[in-house]
Structure formats: C-alpha cells, structure tokens
Design a protein that fits this description.
The protein is mostly helical. The protein is about 75% helix and about 0% strand. The two termini are about 25 Å apart.
C-alpha cells in the first residue's frame, strides 16, 4: 500500500510537470479557467437573467465548481489509458494508477480554484448559513465518485473508442438538467424525476448544501445519498476492471 501511494504521488506531480511544461503561465491558466467561467456566469445569471436566489454568487459557486471538476476530470481521464499505451507496454505499471494520478491532478486544480473564489466571496457575502468545516466530507465523496466514473469510462474507451464522444454529448445535456445555476425548486414537480435519476446531482448537492443554505436535517441525508452514488460507481468500476483488465493490453 505504501508503494502504491508513493507511486501515485510521484506520478501525479510528474503529470502536472508534463502538462505545464513549455507554458508561460502553466498552473495559472488552469486556475483561471474556472474562475473566469464562474465570474461570467455569475454576472449573466444574476444581472442579466436575474435569477431570484439570495446571494447568488455563493449559490453558483457551490454548484459550478464541482461541475467543472467533474467535466474536466472526465474529459482528460477518458482517453488517458489509450493514449498511454507506450507507457503501459514499456513499464510494469498499474493502469488504474494512471487514472488516479490524472484525477488527483485535476483535484488539486479544483481545490486551489475553489479557495481563490471562496475567500473574496465569503468576505463580501452577508450570507451566514454555511458549514465550510464540513466540506472535507462531500469533497472526499465527490473525489471517490469521480475517480470511479473516470476509471470506468477510461477502460471502456479502450474497447469502445466512441465512449469519449458519447460521454461528452451526455455531459453537455446534463449541464442544463442538473441544478447548477438554478435551484432544484425551479424544476416543475412533474419533471423532478429527471433530477432524481441524475447521479451527478447528488454529488453536487451534497457539496452545495455545506456551502449554501446549510441545514443539518438536509446536509446529512444529502451526504448519505452522495456516498451511495459514489459507492455504486466504485462497485461497478471494480467489477468491470476485474473482468476486462487482462484484455486491456490487447487493445492498446
């Protein structure tokens, strides 16, 4: 286990160095992307579309930033196994380790961007119904869930090369049917079943419930649902990897 963790840390930092090599700003550009996207959407939805939500900037931060982490991680992780065929063939390295280092790379970017946005928003926000001290719990659940989905989708992409195209298309649709920039209460009751069937909603809602409108009677059930979603994806990923991991090297 110690060797696995040591390899994971080494590969994560090696991956980060490779990504930012020969760039002028490197890490700064990666952090600026979610910050700019958050700022633009905050202005558009609050000032132009005038979505009626108290302290909308804090509300949007609780939904948009985990969504950016989810989509960026999936988009970068899905083709990673297949694109690393030379590395997998040349070295005895656990392929699952490659996916984890990619997830951790994006997770570090997510945490830094979140802190950069969180500090000024909380300073100028009059909103007090927050529980930032509980954030490590939904963040951990989110990390486990996305690691499971990423590993599952990346392995599937080795056997079915259109996986990344299908998933990108699905994510573009899910952005609008996931309560990210609008509260779930805005969805008519007859269409709530669409939200209930969306697994990413539960991962994001647990995170947002600690950032915005904290209520212990809502937070803990939301965290429990998110944990069940993460565990479900982890179980599916584990079963699929056990069945297909030996076939991996024949397809890369």
């Amino acid at each position: 286990m110690k060797i696995f963790i040591r390899q994971l840390i080494s590969l994560t930092f090696a991956n980060m160095k490779a990504r930012y090599r020969k760039t002028l700003a490197g890490f700064i550009w990666v952090i600026l992307n979610p910050i700019i996207l958050y700022s633009v959407q905050s202005i558009v939805f609050r000032k132009i579309l005038k979505i009626d939500v108290p302290d909308y900037s804090l509300f949007l931060m609780g939904g948009l930033l985990p969504w950016i982490f989810i989509t960026n991680t999936l988009e970068m992780s899905i083709p990673y196994l297949y694109n690393s065929h030379n590395l997998l063939r040349g070295f005895r390295i656990n392929p699952f380790l490659l996916i984890l280092c990619q997830v951790l790379d994006n997770f570090i970017n997510f945490v830094v961007a979140f802190l950069v946005i969180l500090i000024p928003v909380t300073i100028f926000s009059p909103y007090t119904d927050t529980a930032f001290y509980l954030l490590p719990l939904p963040i951990l659940v989110l990390l486990v869930g996305i690691a499971a989905i990423s590993s599952l989708a990346s392995l599937m992409n080795v056997f079915y090369r259109d996986t990344k195209f299908v998933l990108t298309f699905v994510l573009n649709i899910m952005y609008f049917i996931t309560p990210i920039f609008y509260p779930v209460e805005f969805v008519p009751q007859e269409y709530r079943w669409v939200i209930d069937l969306n697994p990413l909603f539960y991962l994001i809602e647990a995170f947002r419930s600690a950032v915005y409108g904290y209520d212990p009677l809502f937070f803990w059930p939301a965290l429990g649902k998110a944990a069940l979603v993460s565990f479900g994806f982890a179980l599916i990923s584990f079963i699929y990897w056990n069945r297909r991991k030996n076939d991996l090297y024949y397809y890369i």
